[in-house]
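Hi everyone,

Forwarding the result from last night's run.
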Amino acid sequence: MKVVSTWLCVAVLLLVALFGILHVGKCQILEADMPVEVVECFQLLGNNTGGANPEFETSDEIYIQCLQQFLWKEESIQWSDFNITEKDKGFINSLIGSLVRRGRQKRQIGPVGIFPRTGFRIRREYRRISDGERFALHSAINQMKSTGQYDTFANLHQGIVINSAHGGPNFLGWHRVYLALVEEDLRMINPRLSLPYWDSTLDFDMVDPVESIIWTESFLGNGNGFVTTGPFANWIAGANQLTRNIGEGSTLFTKESIRMVLTRCRIRDITAPTAMVQFNLERYHGGPHNWVGGQMSGLNTAAHDPVFFLHHAFVDYIWELFRIRQARFCGVNPSTDYPPTMGLHAAERPMDGFPQYRNVDGYRSYWTQFWYRYERSPTCSMWQPFCGSPYLRCDMARQRCVSMARMGPSPLPAAAGFGASLAADSPSSPASAMAARAQAATVLTGPRFVAPPPEPRTQDARLSMGAGRMRRSANQNLETKTDIKVKGKSSSTPMDVVVGPVSEAPDIGDQTVNNPNNIFSGGIIGIDQDFSNSGTTNNSLLSLSEEMQLLPTPNYHEITLTDLLRPPAQNTFIINDHVDVAMWAFIPVKVLYTSNLENPVLKFLNRRNHYSKHPNEPSLNSSSIKFPNKRCIQDESGAMQVRIQSVGLNYNGEYSGYALIDRHLPVDSATTYIGVKSPETEHTEVVLSAVHSCGLMCQAYCFVQNTVPPEFKPCSGALKISSQDPNVYGRTYEEAVSRVWQGVISGGGVQNENLRIIFDCSDDDKAPWFPGNDVFNNTISSF
C-alpha cells in the first residue's frame, strides 16, 4: 500500500505540473482543419488493419509523404535560379505534377517520389546491354533532344545547383533524384529502357583508355574533338557544338580509388567538405569529367553531353556499394546518415529544381527498393574468364575485365617511337590529340570540376614530360593482347568486330527541315522495340544480354544502429525562399510519454484518461502495436528523442526541434519550442507532428477554448495562429521560453496557460489512420 501511495503522489504532482489550475487568457492559437487531400492520402496509404503500410518503413514516413505531396505546387520552384525558358518550366512542372497526381489517384500505389510511373528497372554497365537496347537508348535520347526535353534537364545542372548539389552531402542525393527523373522521362518514350552506367575502371585498365570501343560510332561517338560520328553527332550542346577531348587530364575511376572510398563508414568521411582527399568520392568523380573534356569538364555544361548521365550512374553505383557496406558491416542506417549541415546543403531544404523533395530525400531507401537496382559490374577470374559481353575481355594476368579497343592499329607499340605507327585519326596520335585540344578550347565551360591530378597517359601529363620519359611511360603501360573467339571464329587484335547497326552521321553543314539539329536518329522514334527480336540486332554481337548478379538490397529494418541519438536539427529559417530569423516566431509544445508497463501510475492515468474528465475511446490496436525494436534508436540510459516538426500550410517553411524524455520512467514530460511563421503581418496556418526514436507517431491534443482548468482534445495538429494575443508565442526563442517559465521565477510554477498543443507519446503508434486514432471523425467527442 505504501508503494501504491507513492506512485499516486508522483502521478498527482505530475498532473498538477502539467495542467495547473491557472487563469486561461484569450486564446489566439486555434485548432484548424487538416486539408482534405492530406486526410485522403492518410486513408489511402494507411493500412485499415491498423498496421503501417508495408511499403513504408515507419508511419512517420507516410505522414511526411502526404504533407509533401499536398504542399508541392508548380509555382514553388524558383526558376530565377535557372536559365531556362517558359516551355522548359512547363515540361519540368508537368513531369513532377504527373508524379504528384499519380499519388492522388486511389487506384495507384504510393505517393509522389516512392514509386515511379513506369515501373521498376535494372541498370547495367553500358557494354552489358544488348545491341538492340543500346540502339533504342540512343533513339530515346535523341527524341528527348529533338523535343527540347534533354536540354531542359541539362539546363537544370547549372546556376544555384553548382553550389547546392556540389561541395557537400547533397551531391550524392541530388544527383540520385536527377538521374531517376531523367531515366523516368526516357522510359516514358520506351518503357523497356533503363539508364546504363559507364564503369570507367574497365577503360582505365586498358593500355590506353582513349582507344576504348565506347568512343566509336556504335557507342558514344568519337571523343577527339567535335563529335561528328555516332548517335550524338553534330549536337548543339549549350552554346557550342558537342565536343570532347578524351584523355585530356586527370584520371578515370580506378578500382584502387573505389576501394579507398569503401574503407569508410560514414557519409561525412567521403563527401566534401569533411572528407580527406584520399576518401573523397566527389573529388574522384571529377576525374572522368575532366578526362573526357569539352562540355563534360565544365560544371555548367557537363550535362549537355549524354556521357554525363552514364558517368553519374556509376557514381551512384559506387554510392550504393557504400550504402550496402554501411548497412551490413558498419551498423549505420544509410537512410539517416545525412551529416548536420547548414545553408544550401541543409537536410530539410527543398531540392533545387525538384522542390517536392528535400535534400535528405535523396538518401531514402525507397530509391533502390522501388525505383531501380544495379547489376554488378562485370568481373572475371581464372575459373570464369568471361565478362558477359563481346565488348569486354578478361585480362587473365590481373583477373579483371577490360574494355575492348576500337578497330585500328594497336596503340602505343613498344618497338617504335612514340606514335610512330598510329593512324592519323586515332585519339592516341599526337596530331589528333592536338586538334581535339584546340577544338575543346573553343567550348565555354566556365568553372571546372575539382579532380585528382593527371595520370601519366593523359595529355596534361605528357605535356609536362620530356620525350624520353613519355616513351618510357608508354612502354610501361603496355599489356599483351590475347586472342579471343567471337561466334566460334578466332580473331587477334585488332579485332574485326561488328557492333550492331551503324549509321553515318550527316555532314554538319547539311541542315534539313526534318532534322534541324542534324540529330542521328539511331532507331525509330516513339516505337516500343522488343530488343530480343528487333531487326536492329541482325549481325550484331550482343543480341540479348544474359542475366548477371544484382547488388543486394539490405534490410534496413534489421540494422543495429550505432547512433544512439539522432544529430541535432539544423534549421535553415527559410520562409518562402528567404532566410530571415525575424520572420519566425516560437510556440511552446509539451510532450508527455507514458509506458505500457503495468504500474499504478498507468492505471491512475487511464482512469483520468490522461488529460480530461471526458472519456476517450481507447485505441483498438493498442495491444498489438509495440516497439519495433529492430528499427529503434535506443540508448541504454533510457534517453529517447521526440522530434516535433512544423510545416507551413499557408507559407513555405519547415522547422524541427527535439524533446528528450526518459523511457525507463513510467511517465515523463518535456517542453520544447518550435518555430512557425510569425503571425505579425498575417495569420499563420501550420501543422505540427511528433515522432519518437522508434518511428512511432504521437497523438496531438489541442486546447479547448474557455476551459478552466485547461482541457485538451485529440486533434490533427493543424493550428491557426493570430497576433491578437502575443502572450501565446514568442518573437524569439528566448522570449518564448521566458513566457512559459516566468512563473518559476516568481515561484508560481510553470505558466501552462500559454500551452496550446500537447503530444501524447507511448509504446503505441498514434498515427491518425489507425482505428481508434482517427481524429478526423466528427463523432469523436472533445474533452
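The mean pLDDT is 73.

Cheers,
N.
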